[in-house]
Structure prediction request, 173 residues.
Amino acid sequence: MADKEDLTRFGVAFPSPLIEQFDQYIEEQGYKNRSEAFRDLVRKTLLQPSALQSDQDVAGTIVMVYDHHISDLPIRLMELQHEAHHDIISNMHVHLNHDQCLEVIAVRGNLGRLRHLHQQIQVQKGVLYAELSVTYVDELNKLAHAQSHQDGNPDHNQSAGQHGHSHHHRYTE
Prediction:
């Protein structure tokens, strides 16, 4: 929680129907006031992949729904994930019905690479839905990376998956 002196106050004008909907939303979500809800919405907006730079290190998820009967699709999706293994922390696979599977891939790495993986997944025939969601921006890693360039650190070319983090792949069926 920020101290009062850290807060900047500003006025926002809302049409009456919109503020009524917003007040109903914050009550349903359990917020104490409009400011808390507004701050969370701004944070969420700033974490949209389109609002971030490709060179940033992030963590998040790729969620997809696909038809597992489509020829070679499960194999192709597995190959894509193996190619990106340094950026994948974990994977959960759920059988939704006779035809469709839901897969949630927890990822952590360079946003540009994660965007590329997401794009490769979403264009596959039989993938009905695919979304990349960013939940964390690794500002400290970016600062350390910039510092290593200044210090001439020879290890600055390590990928995000090799920065001393252990990765566990869990496949659940």
In short: DSSP finds five helices and four strands in the chain. The longest helix spans residues 16-29. The chain has a mean pLDDT of 81.
